[in-house]
Amino acid sequence: MHQFTIAELVKGLRNKDFSSAEVTQHYLERIARLDKTYNSYITVTPELALAQAKAADKRLAEGNQPALCGVPIAHKDIFCTTGVRTSCASKMLDNFIAPYNATIVDNYLDSGVVMLGKTNMDEFAMGSSNETSYYGPVKNPWATDCVPGGSSGGSAAAVAAHLAPAATASDTGGSIRQPAALCGLTGIKPTYGRVSRWGMIAFASSLDQAGILSRTAEDAAILLNDMASYDAKDSTCVECDVPDYTADLNKPLNGLRIGVPKEYFGEGLNPATGALVEAAIKVYESLGATIHSVSLPHTHLAVPAYYVIAPAECSANLSRFDGVRYGHRCENPKDLNDLYMRSRSEGFGAEVKRRILVGAYALSAGYYDAYYAKAQKVRRLIKQDFVDVFQNVDVIIGPTSPSPAFQFGSKTKDPVAMYLEDIYTIATNLAGLPGLSIPCGLVDNKPVGLQLIGNFFAESQLLNAAHQFQQATNFHQQTAPGIE
User: Fold this and answer.
1) For residue 412, what is the DSSP state?
2) Residue pair 108/73 in contact by the 8 Å Cβ criterion
3) DSSP 200
4) Which active-site residues does the annotation give?
5) Strands 257-261 and 395-399: what pairing?
6) 3-class secondary structure per residue, 152-190
7) pLDDT at position 28
8) Of 26, 17, 100, nearest in space to 60 by CA
9) What gap in Å lies between CA 376 and CA 363, rounded to an integer?
């Protein structure tokens, strides 16, 4: 049963081949038996899941249910869930029970989706390897001595190990697409503003976007139908109609114009990874797409601009965690200053502290114009590069990550090397564009991701391009060795 895709689960539930309770129980048993190997969940919610499954079965019996009714998924532990711990993988929020649901959680509840639990992640979504979690690192099902990618590594590992058919995730600089690449999955980051951020604990508010990790592009399209919505509670959410993302999946790619940025194939790209991406481009050509060489000249500035803007916003967002209102509070503070200092120093991990310090410095008097303001100007140039390129092409293609999954500890002592793991994904967040990663082969028996970037609100086109590639190849059907 855990081999079924979301599309197959939807069909089976509607045909009454099995019940939601049966599917949910099956996944809960797998999690209990196998997740000690991967550490992909922080919190599992068996009683709640089975109660939701029972309610879904009742709706299914009545015959008037949404498409996803009865389907179980996991939620990244960055999304608030009423009555269930929402920790953001931090000691700071280890005791936080959310009093409300994130909008995307409510959207799925309204559709009858079952929540299996909350997945592990880098602390406050800060990391590219899932090694910064207070609850320990997540292991990649393809190679348990390697990272699954971050920050949505728990969601990626859970889906890759078949401990959930799909999972929600978030992407601030590549945190959906990079784990998708390293774990052999489909991962989509929608356009900034396409999905509500209400109830998603903020890292960098102008960059964060909720999205999906699944096994196929078809599954991602089905899930995005219910995830995407206008939300008046989120001032950054764009008020526009949500299309049926499954409607154009089978549209032929004849005439699709694909741009290949020369900047994505230079120094730093693993040669074997580059060869697989180039082979994937040839598949698209065989499907009727036309290939065009393009340039994104400010690509080399994306990482430095991001690591000024994101920490600056992080330092502002995390200032609320002070040991007073909620979250971790130190024992027996001497005075207010001691309360603040010890609560924050005890509650936050090393990477979070590093980014708070960098961000506070960039925003400080005398340095704001030199760093933060200049980074925002560079951001505008990066966005303009994409605007110019999309006048001549429909989709941009390239690698998702420079190399396959790397071993634990190999980059933790060199933050810059870790930050460069997101070199191909960060610019998409800075520009607010939709991005998607799909598997395109294996290097040393580890998955490689192919990244597709679309124009604003062109998720349907991205999903169509991804689905057609998956119809012509079988990379998305490959399973990590040893998965039962």
Assistant:
1) T
2) yes
3) B
4) 76, 151, 175
5) parallel
6) CHHHHHHHHCCCCCEEEEEECCCCCHHHHHHHCCEEEEC
7) 98
8) 17
9) 12
Q: pLDDT at residue 99 above 90?
A: yes
- The tens digit of pLDDT for each residue in 191-208 reads 999 999 999 999 999 999
For every residue of 225-245, DSSP letters joined together read HHH----TT-TTS---PPP-T
Q: How many residues does the chain have?
A: 484
- Spatial distance between the Cα atoms of 40 and 222, rounded to a whole number of angstroms: 23
**Tens-place pLDDT, residues 103-131:** 999 999 999 999 999 999 999 999 999 99
Q: How many C-beta neighbours within 10 Å does residue 29 have?
A: 12
Task: Please state, in angstroms and rounded to a whole number, the distance separating the CA atoms of residues 40 and 201.
Answer: 19
Beta-carbon neighbour count of residue 244 at 10 Å?
A: 12
**With pLDDT > 70 as the criterion, what percentage of the chain qualifies?**
100
Rg for the chain (alpha carbons), in Å?
A: 21
Q: How far is CA 139 from CA 86, 293, 404, 405, 437, in A?
A: 21, 37, 14, 10, 20
Peptide bond into 152 cis (omega under 30): no
DSSP state of 18: S
Closest CA to 277 of 452, 460, 407, 481: 452
Distance CA 225, CA 108 (A): 10
The verdict on pTM exceeding 0.70 is yes
Phi, psi of 359 (to 5 degrees): -65, -40
Query: How far is Cα 368 from Cα 265, in angstroms, rounded to an integer?
Result: 34
Closest CA to 306 of 414, 188, 420: 420
Average pLDDT, whole number, for the chain?
96
Minimal CA–CA distance to 123: which of 134, 114, 112, 109? 134
Structure tokens at 169: 């995730």
Q: Which of 123, 153, 174, 136 is nearest to 318 (CA)?
A: 123
pLDDT of residue 416: 79
- For residue 281 the two structure tokens come to 């481009």
Answer positive or negative: Cα dihedral of 296, 290, 424, 369. Answer: positive
Contacts of residue 395, Cβ cutoff 8 Å, sequence gap at least 6: 256, 257, 258, 259, 452, 453, 454, 458, 461, 462, 465
